[in-house]
Amino acid sequence: MKIRNKLSLLFTAIIATLLFVFAMAVYLSYSQNREDEYYKELHKIAITKANLLLDAKVEPSVLQLIYRNSQNVLFQEEVAIYDTSFHLLYHDAVDIDKVKENSNMIHKIIAEKQIQFYQGKMQVIGLLYQHKNSNYVITAAATDQYGYAKLTNLKYTLIVAFFISIILIYLAGQYLASRALKPVSDMVDEVEEITATNLDLRINEGGGKDEIAELAVTFNAMLNRLEKSFDAQKEFVSNISHELRTPLTAMLAELQLTLGKERQNAEYKESIQHAISDAQKVVRLSNSLLDMAKANYDHTEITFKKLRLDEVLLDARNDVLHTYPDYKVNIIFEKEIENDDSISVKGNEYLLKVAFMNLIENGCKFSAQHECTIAITYHMDHTILRFQDNGTGISADTVSRIFEPFYRGQNQEYAAGNGIGLSLTKKIINLHQGTITVISELNQGSVFTIELKHA
Predict the structure, then answer these.
(1) Which residues touch 436 (CB under 8 Å, ≥6 apart)?
(2) pLDDT tens across 127-147, in order?
(3) CA 152 and chain centroid, separation
(4) The domain 297-453: what is its CATH number?
(5) pLDDT class of 422 with cuts at 50, 70, 90
(6) Digit-coded pLDDT (tens) for 299-350
(7) Is 79 left (phi over 0), alpha (psi -120 to 50) or beta?
(8) Which stretches of 296-405 are DSSP H helices?
(9) What per-residue confidence (pLDDT) applies to 67?
(10) Burial of 336 by CB count in 10 Å (0-12 exposed, 13-18 middle, 19+ buried)?
(11) How many Å apart are CA 203 and CA 186, to the nearest integer?
(12) What is the helix (H) or strand (E) element at residue 138, kind and residue range?
């Protein structure tokens, strides 16, 4: 069921309940008021006939004649007058005798002074009437024909008004719900036009400050993130295709040329060496892509534990030197380590080692002496690592882009690479809620500074 219909039905149900309670209150109040008024009417008629009989000395036969000749005698008030010994002094219509008085009723009236009750639909009142030091018991009974007719008319009027009101309220609810949800309907129409090919489209946020406007703003923010993600993905795939195609094409061409004709063993070895070099490029690129994928994992999917940064750094140094024996990596402790907490962080050992290895390899690779120096120091709440080299440096116009995936500056002419290392390193440091900055000058070397909070 659509929200519009739900809101209309809920609105109608609430108003219908209130109307029903109101109608019942009106009906019951009118019913009680009719009853009380008619009992008062019976009391006045009983006293009037008693006064005519006892004070005015009107003959009973005359009073009975008046009673019989009145219209609607079946619904007229019937009065009976007794003394306290249950002797009948007067009765409007003995042959009809609506009340059927008995001695118990008379005694009850004498004891309670006045009683009133229903006999079927007929209302009955009995009262003790004092006249010239004598007590009399009077009963009066009748059916409030006109009162019941008005009550019935009120009932049907309330029922008809109730159902007509429900219909009108439902229609009003539909209209109000449609007006209230129109921005949502417009938003749905706009969202249906947004596809993967036109993620630049945005939802109209309007000028309001209600929940619908907040939803539109939030949705547009999500579209901004998706568009950036799609663009980054397209660029990423394009760069991967380019980086993979170059070594694979070179490898295939080298093998095809070698296979084309018979060659000397030395030539075969040289060709195989070229193919191995290209294959190693593909392997390095694949490993970098896998590391980047791990760095892009959800924070909750990566295992973090307490680590000593100096130990992770030494492991990274040993792995680099194992791969490149001619590299030289110096580690300097600027402060004496008083306790483990001074250089301990909460992180992922594998990812941090990858980040450190990338910085060490870059420092050595772009340095003429293949040398890199790492300084470790710490403050109250964080540890600082500085990776310094005396290499070619980075120009001022490219230093702001070195952390972009697959971006390579002018120094690519000095050493091979795929432009993933620094972007991967920055992702890993950000994942550990740290910061990485760089200071570099052409032909003066570079200094990469990492700050990580203590565990």
Answers:
(1) 403, 425, 426, 429, 448, 449, 450, 451
(2) 999 988 889 999 999 988 889
(3) 50
(4) 3.30.565.10
(5) confident
(6) 556 778 899 999 999 999 998 898 888 999 999 998 888 787 888 999 888 8
(7) beta
(8) 309-323, 349-365
(9) 82
(10) exposed
(11) 9
(12) strand 134-142
3-state SS, residue 146: helix
Q: Which residues, 6 or more positions from 389, have their beta carbon under 8 angstroms from its beta carbon? A: 362, 363, 364, 366, 367, 371, 372, 373, 445, 446
Query: So where are the chain's domains?
Result: 3-150, 211-283, 297-453
What's the gap between Cα 289 and its chain centre?
37
Nearest-Å Rg of the Cα atoms of the chain is 52
Report yes or no: 408 and 366 within 8 Å, Cβ to Cβ: no
| Nearest in space to 332 (alpha carbons), one of 349, 310, 301, 312 | 310
The whole-number pLDDT of residue 356 equals 92
- Which position has the token pair 């490029």? 281
Phi then psi for residue 138, to 5 deg, are -120, 135
Domain 211-283 top-level CATH class: mainly alpha
Q: Label residue 133 left, alpha or beta by phi (over 0 means left) and psi (-120 to 50 means alpha).
A: left
Query: Is CATH 3.30.300.30 correct for 3-150?
Result: no
